Amino acid sequence: MTMTETTLKAELDPLPLRLRKLPIDARGYPVPFFVPWIAGPDGVDVPEFRGMDGRKFTRAVKEKLCWICGEPLGRWLTFPIGPMCAITRTTGEPPSHRECVEWSVRNCPFLSQPRMVRRDEDIPPDAATAGIALSRNPGVTCEWITRSYEVFSDHRGLPLLTVGEPETVSWWFEGRAATRAEVEASIDSGMPTLLAAAKVDGPFAVEQLGRQMERARRLFPTES
Q1: What is the three-class DSSP state of 170?
Q2: pLDDT of residue 4
Q3: How far apart are CA 140 and CA 42, in angstroms?
Q4: What is the mean pLDDT, run by run of 10 residues, along the chain of 224 residues?
Q5: What are the phi and psi torsion angles at 177 (to 5°)?
Q6: Which of 178, 159, 181 is nearest to 169 (CA)?
Q7: What crossing angle do the helices spanning 203-217 and 180-201 adopt, rounded to 10°?
Q8: How far apart are alpha carbons 12 and 103 in whole angstroms?
Q9: How many CB atoms are closer than 10 A to CB 139?
Q10: pLDDT value at position 214?
Q11: What pLDDT, on the 0 to 100 scale, is given for residue 155?
Q12: How many CB atoms lie within 10 A of CB 194?
């Protein structure tokens, strides 16, 4: 990993203490622990923000490290997940500290800007993620705080996580608290993909998805 000395982008919030140890990229953004580093055109390693480092995944799970800052986690585990993941209670990323997550949902371009599109071309194969990819920005992020999770393998043998029962849940949109209407709009745009996958698995899977949806609705914001 190689990077010249740079400073934090002026319009970003001040970094929490744990995030201050991260390198800053040429744009002024901190580079999270999970980001893989690849060779740039000039031979200097650069961060590939669209992927994740599989070796870091293994370390985060085994050593109980924050997925964002890389420091040890405590009792509480915070997952920044999309609304569809809140329905299935699965995610492709290990947990983080709450303060690391909340800084990210306010400042990460993909999380805080609903119209930001993730470009998937030329992502290194070893930086791919597991599960069913939704080719959209969900706009809304669910901050899911729990004490537990379990790791399992998807249909390709890649690791996925089942998040434990939530102690608290909060919803974010454009770096602020999301309304129920914003959460439901995000659900409506992503549900066809989940439903199509469930139909492939048969009627029982469709019924199960319906039950998961009703369970998730109880966690939505109360204000519309």
Answers
A1: strand
A2: 46
A3: 37
A4: 68 95 94 93 88 95 98 97 95 97 91 52 54 58 97 88 97 93 93 93 95 95 81
A5: -60, 130
A6: 178
A7: 160
A8: 9
A9: 23
A10: 96
A11: 80
A12: 20
Confirm if 68 and 34 have CB atoms less than 8 A apart: yes
Q: What angle do CA 120, 53, 146 make, to 5 degrees?
A: 100
Give me the residue label for tokens 């379990």: 150
> Using the 8-state DSSP alphabet, how is residue 42 labeled?
T
Cβ 111 vs Cβ 172: under 8 Å: yes
What is the chain's length? 224
Two tokens, residue 86: 């809140």
pLDDT at 125: 55
With vertex at residue 142, the alpha carbon angle to CA 141 and CA 147, rounded to the nearest 5 degrees, is 140
Six token digits for residue 118: 């993730």
Burial track 62-91 (b if 16+ CB lie within 10 A, e otherwise): eeebbbbbbbebeeebbbbbbbbbbbbbbb
Specify burial of residue 164 (Cβ count, 10 A radius: 0-12, 13-18, 19+): middle
Side chain identity at residue 98, one-letter code? R
Q: What pTM does this model have?
A: 0.85
Domain ranges of the chain: 17-118+126-217
Burial environment of residue 173 by CB neighbours within 10 A (0 to 12, 13 to 18, 19 or more): buried
